[in-house]
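Notebook B, p. 112. Complex prediction, attempt 2.
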Amino acid sequence: MNTVITSVGKLFSSTAAPSQGQNILNNALQLIGIPMMGIAVFLLLWGTAAQNIDTSLGKFPGPAAVYEQFGSLYNEHIAEREKAAAFYERQEERNAKRVAQDPTYEPRIRKYTGKETFLDQIFTSLLTVMSGFFLAAFLAIPLGIAIGLSKTLNTAVNPIIQIFRPVSPLAWLPLVTMVVSALYVSPDPMVAKSFLNSLITVTLCCIWPMVINTSVGVASIDNDLVNVSRVIRLPALKHVQKIVLPASVPAIFTGMRLSLGVAWMVLIAAEMLAQNPGLGKFVWDEFQNGSSESLSRIMAAVVVIGFIGFLLDRTMLQVQRWASWDKSSASR
Amino acid sequence: MKHLGSSLKRFKKNGIAKIAACVASVGLAFAGNQTLAEELGWPEKEELKFGFIKLTDMAPIAIAYENGYFEDEGLYVTIEAQANWKVLLNGVIDGSLDGAHMLAGQPIAATMGFGTQAHIITPFSMDLNGNGITVSNEIWEQMKPNIPKMDDGRPVHPIKADALKPVVEKYQADGKPFNMGMVFPVSTHNYELRYWLAAGGIHPGYYAPHKGDTSGQIDADALLSVTPPPQMPATLEAGTIYGYCVGEPWNQQAVFKGIGVPVITDYEIWKNNPEKVFGITAEFAEKYPNTTIRLTRALIRAAKWLDENNNANRPAAVKILSQSNYVGADYDVIANSMTGTFEYEKGDKREVPDFNVFFRYNATYPYYSDAIWYLTQMRRWGQISETKPDSWYVDMAKKVYRPDIYSKAAQSLIDEGLMDAKDFPDFETETGFKPPQKEFIDDIVYDGTKPNDYINSFNIGLKKGDVL
């Protein structure tokens, strides 16, 4: 617990401007002490509230129960890894035996068939969200630039964007699922259908903030810059490369940061509904299991989801700062 | 390769003296393999994915995996929980699942074209019994005065739906719909709940698929609707339904949570009724015949293990099932029914040794008469909208239930000495029809060879010639 708090503290302190020597102690108190106090009060409130909520699955889990679950989730992960090692060993033995009997057989090592642990599911979720996000960025930024440059295109596309932007992932999901299973047929698929379903849903939902921010950024470039480009007669592509892109970088990154937040939220919902592997599925499975530990395991997942969301946002902020010339935009 | 290398090293170390012995043993292994290869080849498809719904009767799949029976057959199986029966069926049809734990009615309905059309077959029947009907505490309190008591004050079981009838009538008089949950339109649970209600004079409603009505609520006293098994307790608690019919552990879960009371088990509605089956597409069985036989072998071994030595392995099985990737409910909840007891009201725990049967009484053999019983119920409630000749029922059963595959798998297990011939029906003489069965709650006798006569024998239900 303490390590978590200090690392949270560190994250906070890194965002603050460095100050003069004599204030360091004061600052440390401000930056570490106060958030710590906030967390302590929150834990206390949570603990007392939890004790007073009786569900049909027992008491609502307090901080201690959740902390305990982290331990057992980790132990499960280790146990599963051991099972996996035994699985591979058995497989090699079996392959060797079969080759001895049937020399034409080409032995292959198959992936472990056991369950995905909590840690595996965190990793799957991260991979899905990043893939969906990058796919969205890949589509959204060129589209946003085009819309920003051309008033006509903007007028044409704007109504469509405005209509699709507020659509919840849950509405897209059935359509995506059906389309993917109709179009993505291959005997030996490279990626699982479920992965593709979540990825496309994430893309569909997080593409809009990027498109809008990019187009607004591009449309509001300083007229002087555009005039310079005109005067020196830059060809269209050079104009985009030398003037438009650098000028709209802050806006693009603001859009990306918003999108990543949306993507993470959407992903959990999509995984939950479509039973695609990941943290959302973990939560749903535990809900369905209805065991006496289910609630504390779900709560553990909630904490992890929140923490990862926070880390993603901070990472994006750092990237934004590093890539952008307009330092003030980062704090928006 | 590593093993080959190390055995080579050992060769050198031990010298020529051992070579003769080694050659002999390799020769033996080779000979053993040849007899096996003649009867049963290597699996054509080695990596398989099976789906299941979180119910204790998925146990044969979990055990075949955990005990390594699938691996013994050279099959690398991934087992995945599915959200509901429709998702599971679609998965098998579109090929994202190779096979699945299915409701007995699902392969039949799919082959017939009620719901999604696809030719699904079953080489293996997964279990007998295992379901229960639970009502909410509020309904139970109103039913209780209508139920005779034993000397110690506990209600006499089995409880008939006669005790529920006045309650339903009261709701009807008040203009309130009496809602109940079942897990799927062609589920065992739907037919069992309907059977129980109708036996007590409560009309559960007709289907009329030819008119596009698949809600099954025409003329109904009690309105039945679909809820996925794991959500049953939560839906009951929310008050959306007053009772449900579902497999374990979701009846015992209601007792543990204190939100409802199981009133009857399906064992008491029809003694040793067939429950789940293992479903695969006909295409899969045709394309991968060896794989099909091998997975059937693994499942037969798992079922045997589950019932061995008078249920001695059940506690170990419960421990496996309580893992979060299988059923995931608490050990105690699952153990209640799996280890031969059933808790009705809190504290009223009774012996039901055959509540879950996985192997004894030839539970795993896919009997045509079992398939025909489901077909008769589909006709009774209008899912089959027109009268069909007896021969149609038999043909349909033979199209879906495949004892030929089962017999091959079982015979190879017997030949290898892994099983005993006395564990199985005599494959030479078995017709696939059980003798007329008498142990139903309403004492109506079921003879699988005469489906139309059976359909005509019910008070409530469509009869010969009836069309809605």
